[in-house]
Amino acid sequence: MNFDNMFGVEGKVVCVTGGGGGIGKGIAGAFVASGARVYIASRSDLTETAAGLDAVGSGECIALRADLAEEDEIKKLAAELTKREGKLDVLVNNAALGYDIHFEDFPLDAWDKEMAVNVRAPFALTRECLPLLTATGTFECHASVINIASVDGLRIMSDNGWAYSAGKAALIHLTKHCASLLGNNHARQARSVEGGRHVTFNAVAPGPFPGMLDPILASEQGQAAVAKATVVGRAGRPEEVGAACVYLASRAGAYVTGAVLPVDGGVLVRA
Fold first, then answer.
1. Using one digit for the tens of pLDDT, what is the confidence trace for 172-181?
2. Given 106, 178, 203, 209, which residue has the most CB atoms within 10 angstroms?
3. pTM
């Protein structure tokens, strides 16, 4: 058995969408701290965020601009990664939107915006980046697509996240579909790729974390409510999702594909 560098991702090229704060920043920071070169992509200017993350480890962080609700922007992002690197070891589809609107008042344009970012964008960016991932993955060292879903895609939400929960459930199913039909190293399923692809596809399902929950976590009452909803008694820390992603992208996670990994503090098993 070989346990050397099981969790190593040093030198890997990683793209994290929505890496400006919360979970996305925690994911980017975990890879930078582990020695990877990380591109964070958002419609916002993340130059300052990238500069700050550069200081957390031996890796590197670079900010790119991309509005993931627009197909042309997704294609431009993939083209920029191709120009700069010519390969991609890890794609983390993290960017997401969420609206809290009562069912009777939920507008279809809000539904469409959520689905565009939460489901369509991961599909489209994975499609555009698949040649980069295929160029990298080998039998001994896989490439990895990690979709950041949510426990709300695995349970019935108690609030008004109608499109959010439906979109995250769709993303989980899309992950499994990709793992089966795109990651298989048999030519029959990988189609024109000689020898198949060596790419794993997995989803991480976070529970309560800073980011969208910031308004709730801003008060002691909100923090207490979040703590009560978990088994471990607190909200998650963004770097904990980052650690899960590093695991899936490293040799330690090479035999894991089509899986959904809850990082939720026990929300799903809370009695």
1. 999 999 999 9
2. 203
3. 0.95
Structural domains of the chain, count: 1
Is 39 considered catalytic here?
A: no
Residue pLDDT, tens place only, 12-62: 999 999 988 899 999 999 999 999 999 999 999 999 999 999 988 899 999
What's the CATH number where 225 sits? 3.40.50.720
User: To the nearest whole number, what is the mean pLDDT of the chain?
Assistant: 93
Catalytic residue among 99, 164, 247, 255: 164
Q: Are the beta carbons of 151 and 205 closer than 8 angstroms?
A: yes
Instruction: Report yes or no on 120 lying in a domain.
Output: yes
8 A C-beta contact, residue 114 and residue 130: no
Q: 77 is in which domain, residue-wise? A: 13-266
DSSP state string for 153-188: GTS--SSS-HHHHHHHHHHHHHHHHHHHHTS--SHH
Select from 73, 17, 11 the least CA-distant residue to 42.
17
* Of 42, 35, 38, 83, the residue nearest 211 (C-alpha): 42
Asked if the structure places residue 7 within a domain, the reply is no
- For residue 88, pLDDT beyond 50: yes
Asked if the structure places residue 157 within a domain, the reply is: yes
Q: Does a structural domain hold residue 6?
A: no
* Gap between the Cα atoms of 37 and 135, Å rounded: 17
3-state SS assignment for residue 37: strand
